């Protein structure tokens, strides 16, 4: 298979003048471009002979938008990659672990959260022109763009799929007291506010009404008194 220099077909679209050049949003800064480039592995060093293997241990800055609503990887945070790139018939098999720092907020008590996740990855990237490329959708099997294998979408997708939608500071965080808003885990176990038993709530409300009308009567009678003056 000698598809390396062949144009990679209609899917490249705008990039067809040079399929190897990544499509970069012109509004991105030089720093962002450099950060995006760092995530792309140049496969020319690996070679295409099936069985060739290369270790890929690197620390790279996280890109923007790697997270869900309440938790995510801060942009630029160091992501440790411990990967192995293995040349196989159809492409390159990427496997190993990725350590990503995440920050967020407890969904129950809103305390700030900080953690490092270790994620396992194993993913096949298909060569342009390979049978795998021809018989699978781009959303099913990742593609190799020319000689470049972009690790960023793999790590981003793995992070986003792993992150909990409702992260908690501890597995059994009790959340906040609905009355005073303090963290229940910081309060004594018998913390409570004087709450009227719901069975007597109606009665209590009636007493409150009686008190109100009694209070209301006072100024009324007072004013009649003053009118008489
Ligand atoms: Zn919490
Ligand atoms: Zn309270």
What can you tell me about this protein's structure?
With 229 residues, this protein is of the alpha+beta class. Strands 2, 3, 4, 5, 6, 7 and 8 form a 7-stranded mixed β-sheet that branches. Strands 1-9 form a two-stranded antiparallel ribbon. Strand 5 and strand 6 form a beta hairpin. The N terminus and C terminus are likely disordered. The site of one zinc ion (ZN) has 7 residues, from loops.
Q: List the ligand species.
A: zinc ion
Proportion of beta-strand residues: 25-35%
End-to-end distance: 111 Å
Number of strands: 9
Shape: elongated
What fraction, in percent, of the residue positions are helical?
A: 10-25%
Radius of gyration: 31 Å
Low-pLDDT windows of residues: 1-19, 216-229
Protein traits:
single chain, 229 residues, alpha+beta, 7-stranded mixed beta sheet, two-stranded antiparallel sheet, 4 helices, 27% strand, disordered C terminus, binds zinc ion
């Amino acid at each position: 298979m000698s598809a390396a220099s062949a144009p990679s077909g209609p899917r490249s679209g705008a990039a067809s003048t040079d399929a190897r050049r990544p499509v970069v949003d012109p509004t991105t800064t030089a720093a962002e471009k450099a950060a995006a480039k760092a995530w792309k592995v140049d496969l020319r060093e690996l070679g295409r002979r099936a069985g060739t293997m290369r270790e890929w241990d690197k620390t790279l800055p996280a890109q923007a938008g790697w997270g869900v609503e309440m938790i995510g990887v801060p942009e630029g945070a160091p992501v440790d990659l411990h990967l192995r790139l293995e040349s196989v018939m159809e492409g390159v098999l990427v496997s190993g672990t990725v350590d990503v720092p995440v920050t967020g907020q407890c969904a129950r008590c809103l305390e700030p959260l900080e953690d490092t996740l270790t994620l396992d990855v194993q993913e096949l990237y298909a060569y342009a022109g390979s049978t795998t490329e021809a018989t699978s959708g781009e959303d099913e099997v990742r593609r190799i763009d020319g000689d470049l294998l972009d690790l960023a979408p793999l790590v981003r997708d793995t992070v986003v799929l792993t992150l909990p939608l409702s992260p908690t500071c501890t597995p059994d965080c009790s959340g906040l007291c609905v009355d005073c808003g303090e963290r229940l885990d910081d309060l004594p176990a018998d913390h409570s506010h004087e709450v009227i038993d719901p069975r007597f709530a109606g009665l209590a409300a009636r007493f409150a009404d009686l008190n109100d009308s009694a209070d209301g009567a006072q100024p009324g009678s007072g004013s009649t008194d003053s009118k008489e003056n």
